[in-house]
Every structure is written in structure tokens, then in C-alpha cells.
Amino acid sequence: MSRDMLNTSVGRALKSSTTSKPNSGSSQEQPAIILFTDLDGTLLDSTSYSFEPARPALNLLKALAIPLIICSSKTRLEIERYRGELSNSHPFVAESGGAIFIPKGYFPFEVLSQGVRTGARGDYEVVLLGAEYPRLRLAMEQLRREGFSVRGFGDMTAPEVAKMTGLTLEEAAMAKERDFDEPFILEKAADFEILRERIVRLGFRLTKGAFYHISGESDKGEAVSILSGLYQRALGSIITIGLGDSPNDFSMLECVDYPVLVQKSDGRHDPAVSLPNLMRAEGIGPFGWNEAVITLLRQITLK
To answer: Residue 104 — φ and ψ, nearest 5°?
Structure first.
């Protein structure tokens, strides 16, 4: 990212989150680094939902003015809460790729208008990618009529979601405010493959993270690819890093330059996620996230 970009909308947005100039430490212009991350079980501990173990790497990202792009199955309200705690002013991806939320004025108009259709919602320009939530709820009802034992967040009260997830009541209420993705539980795990085939025939997609998720044809990978294209048009050459912990993150990991899989709470790497250039971080959740980010930034910036 060059010093000249500080005079553009995106440059000002990036600079607002740090006191240093974005990726501008040498006379030879370096590619801009963009980091995409999952939240639950990756940047956030799967039980406490804390990102404190990742604080050293988070501080390094801010010092280097590297955009941290949250790409999560969480809702807009949930992600906004963590963006506030992280002092994060960058775009984010909600509900497993259902929509991209871009702060107004972040990208110059000529960048945002090139092949990306957005609609204004509050303080954001929004790229809508996923199926509308009422359609997902109708699909869940159809699956139950066909004998599948599925129960989504929309079928639960906030106290039930809180008990199941470890969230507070306030956080659980935010988790229920969904637009593009429905997390659910499947009582008979043996039904997974049959369920997946049926969901595909209904025109939707099934993924698995901490919960099963039914969504439209959108996914994290599509959203990350769109955002990467916007950053590339705004900043020139870029290098992308992506971090996740589960199959729900696979589409994101396969479209970044440096994919990273962190260990799950039981200390293993999810065997369902595999890529030729995949880095398997040593450390559970935010501990592995921290070590992987620091290691990669040293490796990339020293090239």
C-alpha cells in the first residue's frame, strides 16, 4: 500500500485505525496485506469468546495498518460489537457470506462502482449475496415435515440460545437477529449426508462450524473474493491471509494467498479442511491465531 493512497477514501479509512502509515516502510512499494478472519473458535475462544490471547498479533496489525476483515457466521449486530471492542473500522462479512458491509466512504466511488452492486443501509454500503432469512425458515419447516430432526435459532428463545452457546442473554438476542443464514442443530448426526443432499435440492447450501448452517448459494469465499478485488483496484498489488477453524471457513481459505487453520478446542485441526498450501497453526483458537499471524507477517514483510 503506497503513501499516495493516504489521500484516497480507503487510505483515510485505513489510517484512522492506526497511528502509522499503511505498509509504507521502504522506498520500494510493497504489496498491501489484507487479513480475513473467522471469529468463533478462531480469533475468539470457543468458550469464553475472548480475543485477549491474540492481543500481540492484533497490536502488530494495527501498527502495520493492515486491515482486519471479520468474516463470520455471526450477525451484523454481533460483529459490530466486536468491531467496537477491536476499534475496527474496516468492512466485514456477516452470516457466512450473506452480505458484505462496507463503511460509507471507505472505498472511492470509482472503485466501488466497478462491477459491484451495493445498496445503502445506515452507515454502510451493502453487497447482498445470500438468500433472505424467511426463505431459510420455510426450508427448515419443509425439512421437519420430511422427518429431519432440525432446530434452528429461529425456533429457540434467547435464553435457549444463550444456554446452548454460552452467550449472555443480550448476545443471544443479537445472534437471533438474522438476515441470510440459519444456524441449527441436527439431533441425528447420521442423517447429515442425506440432509445435505436434500438441502442442495431445495436450492440452498449446508455448511458446518460450531453449528450446522443453511444458507443461500453465497459463501465466505465469494465475499472474500469480492472484497479482495475492491482492495486490489484501490491499492494495486495485495497479499491476502485467511484464518479459520472449520469447514465453514473452507471457501474463504481456498481463495487467499496464505490460508491458516487453527486448532479446535480439543487440540486437533479439523480433518475436513485440507489445501495444498494450508498452514496448520499450533495453538487452540486465538492462541494459534496469534502465533500464525505474527509468523506470517514476519515471513511476508522480510521477503
So the answer is: -60, 135
